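Researcher: Please translate sequence to structure tokens.
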Amino acid sequence: MRSPAASYRQIAAESASPLELVVMLYDRAIVDLQRAMTAVEAHDIQQRTNHLNHFFSILAQLEGSLDQERGGQVAKDLARFYQYARAQAFDASSKNSKEILSELCEHFSTLRDAWREGDRRLTTQTAQSTSPPAAESRPSIRGKSSPAGYSDSGGDWDDATTVQLSIIE
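Model: Translation complete:
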């Protein structure tokens, strides 16, 4: 039987905008990094590995959703950051380094906060707008706008279940 917290996260993911899904993925990546740090402190290699493996699956979803053509420099910068994050997480795992994981967690927190602020501004701007934006002004995913740098075709945005499962697990 699914826990109440998992059910809540599933409902939240199902009703989230694409930008909110990005924030949720960042939130979960941060939780995975924090749990991996706790496992490092406890010398629990299995748990560290489990949490980092989940972190890697979230990275793969974020990377797979980037739209290099329409995302411009933002998508390129995010792709480089995700490559850096993967390398740092592997390094932290091989060195059993809480410090590397902590630094990576700080980077993800900073970016998550930026995505949150973008979502807040977009929500405010949309609420203040008297007319709907032109259809071609932003890519659309199932009737919703996708975040900058992310694709609305192919990748994980078309498979919302995959994104939801990573957030929920």
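Researcher: Any highlights?
Model: The longest helix spans residues 98-128.
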